[in-house]
Amino acid sequence: MLTLNDIKNASQVLKEVIHRTDLIYAPNLVPGAELYLKPENLQLTGSFKVRGSYYKISQLSPAEKAKGVIACSAGNHAQGVALSAQKNGISSLICLPEGAPISKVEATRAYGAEICLVKGVYDDAYQRALQLKEERGLTFVHPFDDEQVIAGQGTIGLELLEQLPDVDTVIVPIGGGGLISGVLFAMKTLNPKVKIYGVQASGAPSMLNSVLHGKIERLQSVSTIADGIAVKEPGEHTFDICRHYLDGIVTVTDDEISTAILTLMEKQKLVAEGAGAVAVAAALFGKIPVEGHKTICLVSGGNIDVNILSRVINRGLQTTGRSCVLTIELLDKPGQLRAVTSIVAEMGANILSVYHERSGSSIEVNGCFLRLALETRNYEHIEVIKKTLSEAGFSLIKS
Q1: Is the pLDDT confidence value at 290 over 60?
Q2: Among 23, 81, 151, 223, who pairs with 10 as Cys (CB 3.0-4.6 Å)?
Q3: Domains within the chain, CATH numbers bracketed
Q4: Nearest 5°: CA angle at 333, between 331 and 334?
Q5: Between residues 381 and 98, the one the model is more confident about
Q6: What is the pTM of this model?
Q7: pLDDT given for residue 364 in this prediction
């Protein structure tokens, strides 16, 4: 049984290993909310995961350490286990889904781990890791459903109460549930009045479904840019803690997650991965009541694949009305393009690209299409531009 003493012991063990990440006051994120960020994206390995993995490995017997450890992960737990094993002077074998971001795979390898890529998602890597555990006699370090791992993650809860004793609300990402279980147990034990909410990606609501139906349920598939929380099935320990202590679970879409990543970069100069940004997304889009409350959003990780970062930023810009594409049907005669671009310029938008098409079965013989990609201020700005173009006699094609 997990106890508060376990979490306090973990805090002592981790004191010389991890960063004690500071709270960042972020009043400009949500109007009317006293919002703080717990930036575990600035933790060693770029994620909170090193807390649980290091504490677990530190508690192994000499015989277990001699044989080495094995783990499975979408990326962050992999790096945590690899670094923890390295610091303890033992070997590690990490199974990752083959779709894991290359940056996370290579970072794990850089910490000295042996890598095994597995076809499928996290759960497929998990099954392969269990096979290799038996074959090689290794100790399995579970990414979330292990009481010592949960105790390590729970050290964040102790820090939050020390850093902001009168906190009202805490918002935490949920994948398999190890992080939120540790935070829940620590904070609810010490201060039951604190409201703690979990956030999942709408494409991977495994804990939400399980808590709603009162039993552990497995998803057939998961689909989200938040690969760190794309888990088909929660753990037994984590499910039990969540259903007893959690004040609520909400979901956020990929568009909302992209907006949160963009907002954190622009307003707080913080880089968060998809899983790390879901708590902020829930606050930004009003999924959880934060106005008038001292609220902490846990930014759990920052290991975003740079190859998809630009796509995520573009999604965030589109979601908030910061960019748009307009398609306009024109008569193919001199001055039409100049007239359109003049209106756009007068409205204060910036033209990013222009595509002019004269051919196509849907176009009149003397007609053409003009497609403009614009940089705009917000949705209201887009509507003003559309209205002005329409009043000038230009026909906009709905996309």
Answers
A1: yes
A2: 151
A3: 4-47+146-318 (3.40.50.1100), 54-140 (3.40.50.1100), 321-397 (3.30.70.260)
A4: 135
A5: 381
A6: 0.87
A7: 62
